[in-house]
């Protein structure tokens, strides 16, 4: 009996990782080493392991091509030409065909240019391959993978941007390479993004905000997101629904920010449901500089609320870390709540690199004392003041760093 179970276990393991060309969805594409995949979802996560909870290596725009040489029931293993494998869930991609080996996508031109509000790097390439963006202080490093080693044939054009950008192409085995573009500035990095345009990828960076030092919030565009809504109540405790508390605090925050000169936009003004990615898109459409999502916290086991409670702030991208810390400091100071911490988490509303995005857990709705305060209109104004003070302090610091 033990041998039978051992055999079945080994058989299952062998089936779980098979060459992609042997799978049913590749019938008719011939015997090939790699399947060519294309992302069908914005923010499609490429992970470091074949696990939905594994660390995210990068997020990709819709329409990006990857090369897979192995799969299991839920993931493809993709080759970025690096020294380790990466994985993407099948639900985020579609199979486009097959290729006997990776040759990489050729580069024909790199154009650096700018307009009033943004810097741009347009990379002309017939196949838009995976990329990753790193933040280094006030700079950014953009890496494009699966690139052909063709440095001599690349035309490079600068339009008054040489002081901001540099680039290099590193050769890797199997005729592949990695294109690296570096951006540097004296001011903090605000929004940045990658977009597809014709036969090119465009790396777009927002120029630093011009800050009024006497009135730092004047003219700054802030999207405010009351979490949950409609059929999604969030935390329910003591007869209160998180969606309602979020909306009331957001309304107070809206008044507080506008009073100090900010231009604000709410993702919802009443009790309606809004998709998470629609909220992010709304902020982008309104060209917001910042996105603040308002929530109330909870715990899987409410009995632990005596030890785990207070205010906390979440961010994902490095350009939001300082903002998260400063807002947290001011929120705790103003409310007197326990400092629950600042956390790096990949949420839909914090994942966006444009605008700068944070999620604020104002307190724990399951905590009786905090719930009594969070549902009180006067205290909601205090919460709003703490967040507003944090925004103002952050912008003052950003203004000084740009000197």
Number of helices: 6
Average of pLDDT: 88
Order of strands, main sheet, comes to 3-2-6-5-4-1-7
β-strand amount: 25-35%
Instruction: Please report the distance between the alpha carbons of the first and last residues.
Output: 75 Å
Computed CA radius of gyration, to the nearest angstrom: 24 Å
User: Main sheet, how many strands, which sense, barrel?
Assistant: 7 strands, antiparallel
Query: Which H/E pattern describes the elements?
Result: HEEEEEEEEEEEEEEEEEEEHEHEEHEEHH
Task: Walk me through the structure.
- The protein has six helices and 24 strands.
- It has 403 residues and is α+β, with helices and mostly antiparallel strands.
- α2 crosses α6 and α4 runs antiparallel to α6.
- It is globular, with a radius of gyration of 24 Å.
List the helices and strands and how they pair.
Layout: H1 2-16, E1 34-39, E2 44-47, E3 56-60, E4 65-71, E5 75-78, E6 86-89, E7 93-99, E8 109-114, E9 118-124, E10 131-136, E11 139-148, E12 155-158, E13 165-171, E14 176-183, E15 192-196, E16 200-206, E17 221-226, E18 236-237, E19 240-241, H2 242-259, E20 263-266, H3 276-285, E21 290-297, E22 311-315, H4 321-335, E23 339-344, E24 356-364, H5 368-374, H6 377-401
Gist?
With 403 residues, the chain is of the alpha+beta class.
Which terms summarize this structure?
six-stranded mixed beta sheet, single chain, 403 residues, seven-stranded antiparallel beta sheet, 6 helices, alpha+beta, 34% strand, disordered N terminus
């Amino acid at each position: 009996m033990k041998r039978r179970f051992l055999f079945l276990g080994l058989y299952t393991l062998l089936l779980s990782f098979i060459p992609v060309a042997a799978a049913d969805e590749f019938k008719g594409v011939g015997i090939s080493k790699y399947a060519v995949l294309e992302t069908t979802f914005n923010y499609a996560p490429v992970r470091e392991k074949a696990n939905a909870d594994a660390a995210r290596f990068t997020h990709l725009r819709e329409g990006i091509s990857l090369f897979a040489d192995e799969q299991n029931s839920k993931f493809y293993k993709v080759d970025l030409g690096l020294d380790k494998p990466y994985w993407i869930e099948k639900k985020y991609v579609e199979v486009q065909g097959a290729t006997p080996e990776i040759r990489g996508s050729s580069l024909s031109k790199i154009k650096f240019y700018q307009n009033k509000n943004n810097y741009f790097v347009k990379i002309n390439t017939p196949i838009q391959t995976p990329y990753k963006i790193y933040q280094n202080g006030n700079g950014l490093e953009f890496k494009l993978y699966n690139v052909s080693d063709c440095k001599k044939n690349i035309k490079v054009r600068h339009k008054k941007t040489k002081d901001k950008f540099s680039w290099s192409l590193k050769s890797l085995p199997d005729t592949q390479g990695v294109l690296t573009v570096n951006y540097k500035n004296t001011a903090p990095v605000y929004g940045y993004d990658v977009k597809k345009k014709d036969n090119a990828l465009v790396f777009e960076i927002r120029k630093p905000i011009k800050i009024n030092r006497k009135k730092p919030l004047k003219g700054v565009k802030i999207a405010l997101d009351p979490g949950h809504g409609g059929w999604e109540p969030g935390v329910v405790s003591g007869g209160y629904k998180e969606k309602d508390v979020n909306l009331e605090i957001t309304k107070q925050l809206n008044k507080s920010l506008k009073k100090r000169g900010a231009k604000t936009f709410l993702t919802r003004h009443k009790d309606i449901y809004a998709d998470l990615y629609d909220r992010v898109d709304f902020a982008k459409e309104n060209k917001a500089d910042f996105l603040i999502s308002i929530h109330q916290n909870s715990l899987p086991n409410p009995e632990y609320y005596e030890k785990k409670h207070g205010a906390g702030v979440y961010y994902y991208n490095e350009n939001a870390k300082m903002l998260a810390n400063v807002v947290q400091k001011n929120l705790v100071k103003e409310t007197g709540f326990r400092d629950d911490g600042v956390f790096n988490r990949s949420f839909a509303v914090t994942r966006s690199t444009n605008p700068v995005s944070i999620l604020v857990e104002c307190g724990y709705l399951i905590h009786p004392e905090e719930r009594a305060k969070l549902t009180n209109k006067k205290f909601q104004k205090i919460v709003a003041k703490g967040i507003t003070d944090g925004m103002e302090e952050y912008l003052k610091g950003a203004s000084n760093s740009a000197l």
